[in-house]
Predict the 3D structure of the following.
Amino acid sequence: MTAVYRLTLTCLFSVILSGCGAIFAEKDSFQEPIGAAEEDSEATQPVAVSAPPIAQPKAPPTELTLLDRVRSGLMFSELDHTRVDQYENWYAKHPEYIDRVFERGQRYLYYIVQRLEEEGLPLEIALLPVVESAFDPFAYSHATAAGMWQFMSGTAGDYGLKENWWYDGRRDVVASTNAAISYLKRMHTLFDGDWLLALAAYNTGQGRLLRAIKANKKAGKSTDFWSLKLPRETQAYVPQLLALSHVVANPEQFKITLPEIPNAPYFVAIDIGSQLDLAQAAELAGITMEELYLLNPGFNRWATDPAGPHSLLIPSAHAERFSSALATVDPAQRISWERYKIRSGDSLIRIANNHNTNVEALKSANQLRSSRIRAGDTLLIPTASAGADYYELSVNQRRLGSQKRSKGNSNGEKINYTVRKGDSFWRIANNHQVSVSSLARWNGMSPRDTIKPGQKLVVWSKNIKEQTGDKDAVTRKLSYKVRNGDSLARIASRFNVSIKDITRWNKVSSKKYIHPGQQLTLFIDVTKAR
């Protein structure tokens, strides 16, 4: 992210060729196309390094497109450097990437531009989410930076972004944009009005940048951005933004046709006053769940945060319908409730885990001052009105999507692993002979994330003996020749495995027939095979 750790140049550019989705899927498949990061930062001199002052851009005519409006507010797009050229060339060769990121970003760009103009900031900053996250509001880096502005938790807290089980303000479109603006303004002031240094600090952190400046001063060298010894990703970060601003300023020069994004608000923020099931919200607004989540990516689960924020972004064309429909809903009916009779051995955390909620929500709904409960008592449990898979972009479903899309090496076997007490990413990765970073990526997580007993992980294991998660399992690879009368169901029953496992191991469809003489690969726990 921003003011903290950033992904490598390879990771940054991998978003370009893959589609929209989890940031791991976008940032790990693309090979580094250009060697900008390998340049010696002292080998070349900048064409221009002075930072323009903050000035209020002139308001463009309303008939212009939104990117015309951005173009009219560019304040340092004239700055250039030889490091910028290769990124300009890359953008020019990949117009489909430009189309894709702006199509994804059109939901958010009007609000960002509006806020930047209100603050009198350069509209180059409106393009920063392209460099940070390819305008993916669900982007999540291996350093645990999240959202289209890529805030780390520590920095997020400094700028008022709330994080809990229900909600992550780092992904909230409005909150994170305002936090990013505040952060950049602070860096601009700290570095004496030099926007290139402010942007570099947003990427690498003010402390590291100050140390680099101090080192150059001590060595009698220039302290402009181009002369500083900075991490490779930061050396590439500012040139990428400048190159993109050049493309937007003069698309004809690069033979690129920019998309025509309407210069009008895409969404309206509506105060809903209390917690609301997101499935119900989508129905009231007449929009899809995907559209609702893309506008409200800060909500982790199936409902808004009971403690707020109580603001929901709704497409402008649907805002009036939503407001009118919501007014007819009894506040008590905004969330579905289940009455649960407490059993012996129950705990609030166990009940919460089994009902896709959290302890604080249970305590709040039942006015409990502590976590102590008694068998025989009844709890009110907030429950989703639809099945888990209906909330397709909730944090759990996104993680499942990452697991389904994961791909391992040709010598690895995909298994489902249940986290045990005492496990860590390192321990699981070591037991399965894979890297920690790969294990985290397969599960849509960061190596710094915590895991807990009972959690389900996907592992592309190189040690198949660990497949069942059972310490006493004895797993063997078996080549099985299909016989007359065999079916997938019969083979699965005989060897105590699932049909799904057989089809996955052999890349065959359960809908197609197998035939006598066909060879199947099976991984059998010989202690359980019949």
DSSP finds 21 helices and eight strands in the chain.
